[in-house]
Amino acid sequence: MVLYNVTVGIDKDIEAEWVEWIKEKHIPDVMATKMFVEYKMFKVLNQDEEESISYSIQYFAKTIEDVVNYLDNHAPPLVREHRDRFLNKHVAFRTLLQQV
What we know:
The protein is α+β, with helices and mostly antiparallel strands. It has helices at 15-31, 64-73, 75-85; strands spanning 2-11, 38-43, 52-61, 90-98.
């Protein structure tokens, strides 16, 4: 199992809008690629920033090839859509992990 983790820091003033959009639009679009078998979303509880809230979205894939396929063939327009919609209101970083 491979975990593709996306951690997003979102400005507090648009948090509710972002959570609704990510759950109703973005995550379903990612899952529709069929590259992942499951996902989980968590709110980060230990916050140091006063102006933003962080969330971790974890996508689980059967193989590293599925993640590479997603990153090469599906992610660019989805990332662009997120970036454009929440321009200057978020930061994101991605981590790829393998179950041992």
